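Risk register update: the risk of archive-format incompatibility is retired. Evidence:
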Amino acid sequence: MPRPYALKRRAERQAETRLRIVEAAVDLHGSLGPARTTLSMVAERAGVQRHTLYAHFPDERSLFLACSGLATERDPPPEPAAWPDGPDRLQAGLGAVYGWYRRNEQLAACVLRDAEFHALTREVAELRLGPSMRRWDESLGTGLDPAQHAMLRLMLGFAAWRSLVRDSSLGPQEAVAVAVRAIRGAAAS
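Archived output:
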């Protein structure tokens, strides 16, 4: 009969190996993108054989789910419940969303780019980010007219943040202020 401490140590090694594999996938997804990352690349980066990778993740989808789960666990998307009620809510919400984009820029850029043409990336991105984005839209869209709501949806997007901050060289607070003005200024006449 196996000794309990031997079984415990084996389980710990398996958990460590699994985490190494998932971290390798996160690193590669954030540098190459999920669509360009092969399972062989993940195994090599993690320092395991392919059969070990498959023992933990029988298919690409299970690895993608673990990868996206780890990334969102480490830095969860902002929750509207933390934003103040009233006129400062829009600024606070956009500030939180833009701060999250800043912290996750490289990974988000690769994932969202690949989601445009890679079905599995699109599925997992929708699963992990879709509910948060809908909560952001619902929370910040209250009281906006249709034109303002359309502008809100645009400004909540990663591409809008990236354009404001990277392409236009605005600072974080300036980007939020521009987005808020654009949303409020879009009011239908």
